[in-house]
Amino acid sequence: MADFFHFVPGYENYVFRAGREPLFFLLLAFLLTFLAVRTYTRLGRARAWRSGSVRGIHLHHSVPGIIASLAAGTAIIAFQPGDDSMLLLSALFGVGGALTLDQFGTAEMKKIARFLARSLRERTSTFVHCPPGLSLLLT
What we know:
By secondary structure, the chain is mainly α. It is 76% helix and 3% strand.
């Protein structure tokens, strides 16, 4: 394998010689993709950019993420690639994982936000209706 990050202290000993370079590329691709997707999403909301779509159907970024992860994982298992190909496929797997998990996290956050809004409405309703009811009971 090529020692791509030889200038980083400790990389050669703890990553390159230890044979962890594919895992490092997976992690690096995951983090960079996650950062890029979150940045693009925030900028898109702030500037009212339109979402990606294919023939008028909204395309969530989990779709290409799942495809990338499955393709990379299948290629790694089926072909047992050489060193440089393994790094590329590891990075592709990391990109796919970041896209998929970001979409999942976004969906979960929306569920939590809806739950909190509903819960707040219920509590507000309770506080608004309780005092008149108590005053009727006390008189």
